[in-house]
């Protein structure tokens, strides 16, 4: 933290991060130290300290507010992950207001929901649990931007009792505060529930929690900006890498052609009797040269597509009649050696029963390649990756599933898999593979969803229309 | 029999090497330049009567970029066909290069046969013009 000062009813805090020896980040947070406006009281000012008792009460609250701000700023200076920062922020919130549970919910504009991003307490809400943003107490606060103190959630018909049922806890009193970007739209809400010690959450608690929520909003926004900057850097790097790879592939592509000409000329010069003997050699050479050329082109296409995915500049769609079995067979050919090395069987089931679909064959190849390539490292030796044609409930679409016998995914990874919140948990992973799959399915107007449990493998299903229609959103089970 | 003399301008040694091998296999004599400055210096040093029949030029070149090299070639050797071989294809760039008089626009990694066809076509068309 750089420093702070109290200026009228505002607390101005400057934070800077010079972890790399230079000014890396410098943010100024301006907090309205008055109790935030409540829905039932349009404007509430600090109590007028007419008596010694009122003055003592005011000073106590000020002390608590500044202590909370200082504790949050200390957390800021620790260079921890956003997840840890939210965890510590919520712990401070519960600690200073003596409450039982707390959650940070972030808006998911694609699905118009508020998603529990992080939750702490004795009975926390599972990460990824979503509630509609157009209803409920959280939804009201998110939409209006006005914090609320609810003294008895059970008596409030907006309260989602299903969340209580899922966690096994009962929410009594609750404070919900919007998480707002600086001069921007809300990005979610923070909720603190059940004050301990037989008391109820009140306006003093709200004032303190407002400070903490401002820090949390800044942290989330900062993380998003850093992610966006990182993505821009990755996009630039990908452009350079793509160019390098094109140059590096030049000797392979060009050299394969030169070799083919040389071999053919050489074999053609042999006497007739030797030409017949060399027939098998000629075929082998031609096959290997074709493989070199094809794979070089695949490398080129895949690198270009990953670069496109990062830049969100996809090449134009090229729809044609497409046989899924043929596409999968090409992917198996490319990944066969990798699977063989790891003693993993690549299997197809019922693909030949699927009807022809109109699809972009290159993109479809890319989607299957990513799904299978991602599955192989997760499967232990002796296991399998199966691509299976499934009967669809609709004649207008096909369903293809990629099923592996790997270790499965934890719920938080599974629930984020095909969302913008997808983050690779693999060492060196970028999460781009699943983004490519999602983009391909979206481009075809299809849907993708995942079933996975730890220890029980993973099934990823793609529903693709037989002819591409309007795009639909992904379903997350 | 030498089919003609082709000048390759590319900063990547392995690209010059493989393009050179493909052209030599097709019967062409090959000259090379490692960057834009080297290409301009080489062209300026050609003695009178020395002829180059086609030029294959990269765009992303150090020192002097491909656009400037091509502008120089078009001014100094207007009858020599120029083929672009680039790893950064873009429609706007290609349009501008064709306006500069480039006869073909190839994208890396190009196949040996594609290169040979492009050179044969360029030299053949040039001979027809003459």
Descriptive key words:
heterodimer; A: 477 residues; alpha+beta; Beta-Lactamase; Heat Shock Protein 90; 2 domains; six-stranded antiparallel sheet; 11 helices; 22% strand; B: 130 residues; alpha/beta; five-stranded parallel sheet
Explain this structure to me?
The complex is a heterodimer of chains A (477) and B (130). Chain A is α+β, with helices and mostly antiparallel strands. Chain A folds into two domains: 3-231, GAF domain (Beta-Lactamase); 316-477, Histidine kinase-like ATPase, C-terminal domain (Heat Shock Protein 90), CATH 3.30.565.10. Chain A is 45% helix and 22% strand. In chain A, the strands form four sheets. In chain A, strands 6-5-4-9-8-7 form a six-stranded antiparallel beta sheet, with helices on both faces. In chain A, α1 runs antiparallel to α2, α1 (52-76) packs parallel to α5 (203-268) and α7 (279-311) crosses α11. Chain B has a domain at 1-27 and 35-54. In chain B, α1 crosses α5 (112-129) and α2 (36-44) packs parallel to α3. The chains are: A alpha+beta (477), B alpha/beta (130). At the A-B interface, α5 and α7 of A face α1 and α5 of B.
List the SSEs and their pairings.
The complex is a heterodimer of chains A (477) and B (130).
Chain A: E1 3-7, E2 10-17, E3 25-32, H1 52-76, H2 82-97, E4 99-108, E5 113-120, E6 130-132, H3 136-144, E7 148-150, H4 161-167, E8 174-180, E9 186-195, H5 203-268, H6 272-277, H7 279-311, E10 319-322, H8 324-341, E11 345-349, E12 357-360, H9 361-375, E13 384-390, E14 397-404, H10 411-416, H11 432-443, E15 447-452, E16 458-465
Parallel strand pairs in A: 11-13
Antiparallel strand pairs in A: 1-2, 2-3, 4-5, 4-9, 5-6, 7-8, 8-9, 10-12, 13-14, 14-16, 15-16
Chain B: E1 4-9, H1 13-25, E2 28-33, H2 36-44, E3 54-57, H3 66-76, E4 82-86, H4 91-100, E5 104-107, H5 112-129
Parallel strand pairs in B: 1-2, 1-3, 3-4, 4-5
Helix pairs in contact in B: 1-5, 2-3
